[in-house]
Design brief:
single chain; about 130 residues; mainly alpha; 2 domains; two-stranded parallel sheet; 7 helices; 2 strands; about 75% helix; about 5% strand
Length: about 130
């Protein structure tokens, strides 16, 4: 049963991650991390397949390997998160506490990506 839940979570993460790769306001990164996590716990074959996909290689491989992310990937993630959170911020005009919490989460996210995730040169980008 647990394996089936991980399998379902992997496919949901993969689907949302693939959508996030092409839709401007849906972030791909967290969903692809979910897919990698779930596939690793559900099926060796699916996990190996997922690691060989272009989607994984372009968005996660260098980060998961602990090397970091290219400036282009970091910029894309930070832009999408900022746009997504800005929409939420605008919709919370009647909830000041929600706005403060969202602003703090946004600042934390920006600080993490700027100072904790290593920036790789474009030459270090994974091969497709």
């Amino acid at each position: 049963m647990k394996k089936l839940l991980y399998l379902a979570g992997g496919f949901v993460g993969l689907g949302l991650g693939a959508l996030g790769a092409v839709l401007p306001l849906l972030p791909a990164f967290p969903f692809l991390l979910l897919a990698a996590f779930c596939f690793a716990r559900s099926s060796d074959r699916l996990h190996r397949w997922f690691l060989s996909t272009r989607l994984y290689k372009e968005n996660l491989s260098s980060f998961v390997a602990g090397r970091g992310m290219t400036r282009r990937v970091k910029r894309r993630i930070m832009t999408l998160v900022t746009l997504t959170m800005a929409i939420g911020f605008a919709l919370m005009d009647q909830v000041p506490v929600g706005r403060v919490i969202l602003a703090l989460v946004w600042v934390g996210h920006m600080l993490y990506f700027l100072f904790r995730v290593r920036t790789l040169s474009e030459d270090d980008e994974p091969e497709n």
